[in-house]
Amino acid sequence: MVLLRQLLGDVLRRLRVRQGRTLREVSTLxxxxxxxxxxxxxxxxxxxxxxxxxxxGALGVPLSxxxxxxxxxxxxxxxxxxxxxxxxxxxxxxxxxxxxxxGISSTVFPEVKDMVAA
Length: 118
Hints:
There is one protein chain. The chain is mostly helical. It has a domain at 4-79: 434 Repressor (Amino-terminal Domain). It is 64% helix and 0% strand. The chain contains seven helices and no strands. It has helices at 4-18, 23-30, 34-41, 49-59, 63-81, 103-108, 110-117. Helix 2 (23-30) crosses helix 4 and helix 5 (63-81) packs across helix 7 (110-117). Mean pLDDT is 81; it is low at 96-109. GO terms for molecular function: DNA binding. It comes from Spongiactinospora gelatinilytica. This is Transcriptional regulator. Residues 12-66 form the HTH cro/C1-type domain. Pfam families: HTH_31.
């Protein structure tokens, strides 16, 4: 089972590394201890909304973008872990090739379709 705090930590770490920033830089700007930020990035601690906002501010990234990336990753993990739905009628099944790419899913989250297709 995928934990939200792990996905959140992965996204925050990826953003920080992509910017070429150190834990020390971001922790100083976010006014959080280096150790705590490290634990958040490793998915060992759950960050409060205030702390997340502070970290996102230090990274110069909107909190909504971080949450969107986490949501997309969570959706992908759910799709990959979905049990076989043998007792659900065929017309009600959401297949990876069709369901994710149709209707509201592709309109709101087109990147999820791309992740599944990869």
